[in-house]
Amino acid sequence: MNSNIGRNAFFCCSRYEVADILYVNRCMVSSYVDEHISPQLRASALLLLELLFIRDGSFSCSLLSSHDIYELVDFICTS
Length: 79
Known about the structure:
Layout: H1 4-15, H2 26-36, H3 39-55, H4 66-78
Helix pairs in contact: 3-4
């Protein structure tokens, strides 16, 4: 398979034992996450998402410098 998206989809289907990618939808993913992800990990992921939006310019935050944002992203990703 040459497509990155196709390889990722195949990997996810194999990993989570999904026979057909057409059965995967937002509700299915959400219920899996709710069952298997701790509240702390979910909070970290949401914080990371917000920091990435700030870093990439989709959100703004005047309280933190670019360096602060990069440091926080690095901390969350490595802790």
